[in-house]
Amino acid sequence: MNNSEIVKEILEEFRKNFSQKNLDGMRRFGINVENGFGTSSQFFKELAKKYKKNHEVASLLWQTGVHDARILAGYLAEPKKLTIKQMNEWMQDFNSWDICDSTLMRLFNYSPLAYDLAFKWVNQEGEYQRRAGFVLMASLSVHDKNREDKDFIAFFPLIKKYSTDERNFVKKAVNWCIRQIGKRNLLLNKAAINLSEELLTSESKSAQWIAKGALRELKDKKYQDYILRRSEKQNKK
């Protein structure tokens, strides 16, 4: 079976498992379900296991424009085969927060190109495109174990600049970004708290909302203890 035939087979799998109930539930969570089949997360995992990594199939799935196909593309594509051109094209296609977040966390996050692109994407005007930059920053904060603290502090001017963006999916991503950076270690926790306290003094309601949410979590004893244990473990290595 060639790659085009595999894509046709996958699309048929989606059709057979169509769920209006799932689509209705997704819509309530602010997901754009246009051109979607309501595929469950469990079924995505089953399909990913069945079809395995295949960058060409992933690229063809993305080109269909089908919501579910684009989610699955993030499972099947290979990070090392990504190019800046492909990543930029997919980013421009984001039209729903779930496709944005899933693609970034399952795929783009593992590309060596990700860090530099995060700086560029937050300057995009589109809501999901700007969100992509901040979600990528948040995801790198979790998964890029070898990057230095200064590399994450370098995100702060952009966080501050766009904390005034009132759009729902942008401000939530900015909040997420601060919280993830601040949970990386004690130094970044303090830096993220200081940044949040600065944002709290802003006249922007969006910046204030972002700051309150971040401070609530970053100052929480449970997270403080977690960060302390994590730092102690890293220092012993």
Describe the protein in words.
- The chain has 237 residues and is mainly α.
- The chain has helices spanning 3-16, 20-28, 41-51, 55-63, 67-76, 84-93, 97-106, 114-121, 127-143, 149-153, 156-162, 168-182, 186-200, 205-218, 221-236.
- The protein has two domains: 1-77, no CATH class; 94-237, Serine Threonine Protein Phosphatase 5, Tetratricopeptide repeat, CATH 1.25.40.290.
- The longest helix has 17 residues, at 127-143.
- The mean pLDDT is 95.
Task: List key phrases describing it.
237 residues; mainly alpha; Serine Threonine Protein Phosphatase 5, Tetratricopeptide repeat; 72% helix; globular
Short description:
The protein is an all-alpha fold and 237 residues long. Helices cover 72% and strands 0% of the residues.
SS-based structural class? Answer: mainly alpha
Q: Can you tell me the residue ranges where pLDDT is under 50 for at least 5 consecutive residues?
A: none
Q: What count of helical segments does DSSP give?
A: 15
Strand percentage lies at under 5%
Overall shape: globular
Overall domain count: 2
Named CATH topology of the largest domain = Serine Threonine Protein Phosphatase 5, Tetratricopeptide repeat
Order of SSEs: HHHHHHHHHHHHHHH
Report, as a whole number of angstroms, the end-to-end distance.
Answer: 48 Å
Q: Characterize the biggest β-sheet.
A: none
Let me know the CATH homologous superfamily of the largest domain: ARM repeat domains
